[in-house]
Write a structure and sequence with these properties.
Elements: E1 2-8, E2 11-18, E3 24-28, H1 30-34, E4 52-54, H2 59-62, H3 68-78, H4 85-92, E5 101-106
């Protein structure tokens, strides 16, 4: 299992988890949910108390990944498998992401 905190404008919005079977779970944090001023991080992940489940990386996060030669460089430099989308997300979305969302690895879930 691997986990990452999802930040929106440098405030923790939730946790993204990759389970041992490769499936993904996203859940908004309790603090994010009680604040009515906090938005959803994506239209496809509306603000809700429920957990979102997917067999594949959620499209919102998948679309944060580089493509083409940028993906090749990222994978080669960081020694990440080309099919390890969660690993790529952790490598690229901690600093260099488009928009207000960043993703930071949780070292000891």
């Amino acid at each position: 299992m691997r986990q990452a905190k999802v930040f929106y404008k440098d405030m923790e919005a939730g946790v993204l988890t990759q389970l041992d079977d490769g499936a993904f779970v996203f859940r908004y944090s309790d603090a994010w949910m009680v604040d009515d001023g906090k938005p959803s991080i994506s239209l496809t992940l509306p603000k809700s108390n429920k957990e979102y489940h997917s067999k594949n990386l959620f499209p919102f996060f998948f679309n944060m990944l580089p493509e083409g030669s940028n993906k090749q460089v990222l994978c080669h430099y960081n020694r990440i498998d080309r099919d390890d989308y969660f690993g790529q997300l952790l490598a690229v979305a901690k600093f260099d992401s488009i928009g207000a969302v960043r993703v930071l690895k949780i070292d000891n879930p």
